[in-house]
Amino acid sequence: MTEPALYDRLGVTYTATRREDPRLAAAIHAALGDAVTVVNVGAGTGSYEPRDRRVVAIEPSQVMIAQRPPDAAPAVIASAEDLPLADASVDAALAVLSDHHWADRARGLAEMRRVARRRAVVFQHDPSVAMHFWLVRDYLPTFARRMQGKRLAEMMAPLGQIELRPVPIPHDCRDGFLGAFWRRPEAYLDPAVRAGISVFALLAEAEVVAAIDALRADLESGTWERRNADILAREDLDLGFRVVVAEYA
Question: Which is more confident, 89 or 66?
């Protein structure tokens, strides 16, 4: 399941910085294909849920559920590892940036495969690419070490045969996840931005303080700009984010 304790803490101000980006939503919704019924696993506040399909939202954190908009699908308090749905009962199973917080990712993915008739869709980053993102590479060594040797294709194996579709992140991405501010580094200095990013909540406070102090110093000295000159004019950037699609029928 998504860790309710973590998101009961993060979720208090989650919607202040975590908003659906329409370009990412378009890529995710396209992957759902002709699915009419969709279960959204780790549904959170409802971002990226298609409004033109019948959705069952699964979310363990009541703090997150309380922030779902009035027109969002009703949420069921349950875990990814034990979906309260019958076999092949929905056209598609969806998970958007939630599976890394499940207690047992493999079991949750197997549950998505069990309940989906046609396909499973997961939006997530590939650690083998994401570990080279400047914020991780230069300022978050513990997080970088955690990603070493991990590959998204291997992590998604419980879904069966999959396709990985790259999703470059636009420089003005509206959804404030870890990689969203790749061309706006000053944003990471803002505690409100960091409050909506789970990585900062999971790292030791001393490491976060050291990372932010180092980033601030590099921005003031011009070191960050010199080190990352090759991305400053980019409209989007491949940070390893992928739409994972498994077809079953």
Answer: 89
Alpha-helix residue ranges (DSSP H) falling in 123-165: 127-130, 134-139, 141-147, 152-155
The token pair that represents 98 in the structure block: 């939630």
Q: How many angstroms separate the CA atoms of 105 and 84, rounded?
A: 17
Please name which of 181, 170, 172 lies closest in space to residue 236, comparing C-alpha atoms. Answer: 170
Is the distance from CB of 120 to CB of 113 less than 8 angstroms?
A: yes
| In the chain, domain spans | 4-247
163 in helix, strand or coil? Answer: strand
Q: What is the pLDDT of residue 42?
A: 95
Nearest-angstrom CA–CA distance, 182 and 110: 33
pTM for this one?
0.92
Into which CATH architecture does domain 4-247 fall?
Answer: 3-Layer(aba) Sandwich (3.40)
